[in-house]
Amino acid sequence: MSENTPKLRAVLDGIPTYKPGKPAASGGPVAYKLSSNENPHPPLPGVLESVTRAAGSFNRYPDMACTELMAELSRRFQVPVEHLATGTGSVGVAQQLLQSTTGPGDEVIYAWRSFEAYPIITQISGATSIQVPLTENEEHDLDAMADAVTDRTRLIFVCNPNNPTGVAIRRPELERFLDRVPRDVLVVLDEAYREFVRDEEVVDGVELYRDRPNVCVLRTFSKAYGLAGLRVGFAVAHPRVAGALRKTAVPFGVSQLAQEAAVASLRAEDALLERVEGLVAERARVSRELVAQGWTVPESHANFVWLRLGDRTTEFAELCEKAGAVVRPFAGEGVRVTVGEPEANDIFLKAAAAFRQRG
Ligand code: PMP
By C-alpha distance, which of 182, 155, 24 is closest to 94? Predict the structure, then answer.
């Protein structure tokens, strides 16, 4: 390394870069983006209007305390405002949680494979990742995760439902796990896909956090609410943790446009959740057809399905792309396919069938 360049923190060496889902190709016949778990529906007119209105004053800084949004969330989730914290997407809040709890020499536990930002933001914090492999059924190995706790553990991510497998943890297993984790270790229940869960046994983290001060729930407006491009997520946690999130927040991080859109979305929740219902129905259809084609598909509780393709992952992703649906390959492991608009799902299903015929 040259002495003439700025000294950077050694922990940044070899950091895996976050790979966003590939965009759909433009200019081709049809191309759908099924690679980022986005909501395929355009913004609701009312939500769009509120953003357009807010855009008229973007010469001003946003409300740093997100007052209206916090009040709306407090009502919606029946939690005190002091138990809430907002951030630039739930990944922004996750990074603040690491900043609040970890540093060099500390350990962060999470299942692997899981959300690909975890290793990146953990490494940036200076802490060490302890990755606990998923079981053969693509489930969190919660016993192994609890066994992995040491006196250096500061934070555990539990992604429920898990990205990219879609598999969810049910109440008894999760409670047993939480009972085993020491009270001074923060457990982050990342529920980015919560609104797509239909199984009543998959417990809502907001119920679990109430009498567990070491549990923090992460939610986002990016998926079910369709605000991915505006960057707003939030945490529900006890005041000590929520207070730490306020200290570690980038000042004015959540734009006024994002705040207004989130408030308008909560007020238009019925219309948005009706769209989610349609996606859940499409998820059932896609899963059913894949099984009929002979695929093994873990039961998805999110807005995507997971196909473990091993060394044929890239080949499959290329075939889908050629057919007009861009999916998300994890080379050597599998492909995650977002449930999109019915036409997009049809293109993907046709490609999946063609792949099986290839043998
Ligand atoms: N958690 C999980 C499990 C995710 O899949 C994602 C998005 N890919 C996020 C958090 C981050 O979402 P956002 O920052 O847009 O809220």
Answer: 155
